[in-house]
Amino acid sequence: MMLRTVLRNEWRLLRADRALALVLGVFALLFAYALSNGLAWVDFQEETLAAAREGNAERVGNLEAELQRIADGGQPSSPFRDPRSPSVLGGAPGAQTAVLDPGPLTALAVGQSDLLPYYYDVSIRTNESTFLQNGEIENPLNLLVGRFDLAFVVVYLLPLLILALSFNVLSGEREQGTLALTLAQPVSARGVVGAKLAFRAILVMGLALGVSLLGVLFSGGFGSPGRVALWCATVAAYALFWFTLAAWVNGLGRSSAWNATVLVGAWLLLVVVLPAGVNITAGLLHPLPSRVEMITAQREASNEAVNQRSELLARYLEDHPELAGGVAADEANRAALAWAATDAVNRRLEEVTSVHDERLGAQRTLVRRYRFLSPALLTQEALLDAAGTGDARFARFQSQVREFSERWQTFFVPAILTGELMSVDVLPTLPSFRFVDEQVQEVRARAVIPLAALGGLLVLVGAGAVVRLRRVTGP
Amino acid sequence: MIRHIVRKEFTDLLRDGRFRWCAAIVGVLLLVSLGSGLVETRRAEAAHTAARETARDHWESQGEKNPHSAAHYGIYAFKPRLPLSFLDQGVDPYTGTSVWLEAHRQNDFLMRPAQDATAGQRLGALTAAQVLQYLVPLLIILLAFGALAGEREQGTLRQLLATGISRRDLALGKAFGVAGALALLLIPAAIVGSAAITLGSPGPAATPFARGTVLAAGYLAYFAVFVALSLAVSAWVRSARTALVALLGVWVLNGLVAPRVAVDLSKSLHPTPSAVEFARTMEREISTGVPGIERPDRDETTARLLAEHGVETVDDLPLNAVGVYLQESEEFANQIFDRNYGALWNRFERQGVVHEALSVAAPLLAVRTLSMGLAGTDVEQHRHFATAAEEYRRDLMRRMNGDLAENSRAGETYLATEDTWAQVPPFQYDAPSLGWVLQNRALSLAMLGLWLVGAFLVAGSLVRRAEVA
């Protein structure tokens, strides 16, 4: 009964306060700007993928037409690009584009999607060096700064809005002399602070979640309600963390000015300094291995391979006796020799990559441990994961592309070795790529760790707030 | 009189526990970031030097080969780290580190270090530049927000002015006091920085001291802007608290909001093509040519050569027509590359101008661009290196095709000896001069100057009108 009075009173106060209305208005604009950027990025990605798919269809169409023409008695347009040859049809001229559609909530968080490749042309030439390629064309300066998307507004700016609204919920009453009056009513300080903060939390979260859902609506992301729920839970947990922090600081019984300084200091430390500090420590203690040595290894492997093609072919056929039917090492065709060399280079590259990836994985595990130091890092991770623009989904895409390229090779290599010619009938039987997206359970299982850590922090700070507020009896 | 004010302010700040703590934290972060930057730069440069030597070794020891096979084999170029890059890694993690220089193609730079890092690492690493651009201004705000507003609140402003000191002198005194306190932090950092430069950070010579001096001057101007702004706000608003809130608002706009607004604004003003579109356009132009850039025809080249030398058959030619034709196709492709890559680079630069122009609202954008420019880690210097590498590739191809044309005849199997490879001069990169960088960064310099003058004018006028109580 009393709390409802407090809430109604707060609503009247907020409505009367011009400055606050202005701040809320500015934030609404920032949210809208962030959302429009995210939506524009999704559009760009979708157009790009449409162009990539179209290019792929055109390539297949041309090959089909040429194969048909040859079947009808025509001549190949170039002896080096005869599509009947499996090393041409399976090579770059017949490459298949493997695409990763934008994450379901990319409009909310651009994440890693501006940096990591989201399509690859897969052919028998695909090997580990394919995965070194750059992603989308992007100004490195823009990559460095990062996008103004909803995830940025939530992680960096939302706490500031929360702190501006709640740094003086209790101290302000005391300074105005109204605290004694309020506490003379049958309510506790805890109840008053709780009600005032709950009111503000409804406003702020209503704004943040409302804009998020609007973004989901515009970009058609409701197809994965699990991700939307995860996003909303993360935003809510992060916002609540800052509200409880404000409650705790208010419970310390200092002046509004002191509260403001401490809270802004906490924001700086947790959002700006700690993530940067964490990164520099991680980089210093666990430097990421350089990729440069991969180039050297690749060169050395291909030098050797070129010089010993026929030996390599013999060795290859010994390793793969099932493919040897019909090929005698001494009467090998040029394509078979070339394949043996390619394969040797690929194997060497895989060795180097696996060593590199192992080291990279170890470093990353160490680096990721530091994220527990900052709620901003935890929140960013959970938000990107929910949006489908975090590291995990891209790693999944890459591993599926790798698997697909193996299937592609398995399809063409036997024909290369036997020198068999392909016809137009083979086109419908080619392996094809479809990205199998993460199950919501998987995303949830990953997000449990950062969310639990965030929740733990929330409980800790909340308990502190409750204890301090219980002691507040009056001015 | 000013001297007394300066001394009082300085002593006050030194005695203030809050300042001591903040300054200690910023100081430690600055030293750590300098040290880690140096370690990281040296590590990267050592790896690249080794790779460069290996790459050259591969080139020289490729054995007897047809020059065109050697051209296809090509050579890798590795981007060097410039001496000052330990201060500001700039866009380096987001540009590739190496490029394959081969026949027929201008390749992209591959292996961006950021692609191996996690999403969390994109929230920013603490480089010396970051500390100077973000944390030092914050320290200045903490030092100066109460300079006038605090005196006013305590009622001591009236007393001070009663001593006959002008408001201007009072404000100047406060400014110098803050500057003195900051100097305690910045001078050691500057010494460590110059020691690091002297000790020899790696990379091609690029007048590191001159660059470092301009860099230091740029940062000092940036700090002066914040001192003036803080005093202006402190003179303008009633309470110290409002001054702090307003200044923190400026800091958030300057450091967090404006840079990201610039990203999306630059992208919508100057959109870049998608990689698919870019590759397709280039492929199409290479296969058909464009008006004014015609694709050479092998038969036409041969016919022309026959006519020039007045002979009937290719066997009578004093050179190999294939070599001439290959070189002509190289030159044709080069024009297509220049057209497409040139347009892309120009887009990037125009996007960069949007970032610089927005510094009208946020001085950080000006000082950041200047800092990256002087450290040699901006987009323009990446382009400078990419252009040098491409020039080297073109020279290499000219030499290979020339060798083929001169030393072989049509139809024969020609293998060049190892000497041919050794005769190709190694790739030597000279970093651009200081003048080149400053010319590129003229807009940032002007903006920073504008901010300096503007902030001081505004501070002067607000201080003169500052109310006593």
What does this structure look like?
The complex is a heterodimer of chains A (475) and B (469). Chain A has a two-stranded antiparallel sheet with strand order 1-2. Chain A has helices spanning 2-16, 18-71, 86-89, 140-145, 150-166, 171-176, 179-184, 189-219, 225-251, 256-285, 292-307, 309-319, 334-369, 375-387, 391-418, 440-470, and strands at 96-99, 119-122. With 475 residues, chain A is an all-alpha fold. In chain A, helix 5 packs across helix 14 and helix 9 runs antiparallel to helix 14 (375-387). Chain A is elongated. Chain A starts with a helix and ends in a 5-residue tail after the last helix. Chain A has one domain (1-475). The model of chain A has no long low-confidence stretch (mean pLDDT 85). In chain B, helix 2 runs antiparallel to helix 5, helix 3 runs antiparallel to helix 15 and helix 8 (167-198) packs antiparallel against helix 9 (208-236). The relative contact order of chain B is 0.15. With 469 residues, chain B is mainly α. Chain B contains 18 helices and 3 strands. Chain B has one domain. Chain B is elongated, with a radius of gyration of 29 Å. Chain B starts with a helix and ends in a 5-residue tail after the last helix. The mean pLDDT of chain B is 88. Chain B has helices at residues 2-15, 17-60, 67-73, 113-116, 128-144, 149-154, 156-162, 167-198, 208-236, 240-269, 275-288, 298-309, 321-357, 363-375, 379-407, 418-423, 434-440, 442-464; strands at residues 75-78, 98-102, 105-106. Chain B has a 3-stranded antiparallel beta sheet with strand order 1-2-3. The chains are: A mainly alpha (475), B mainly alpha (469).
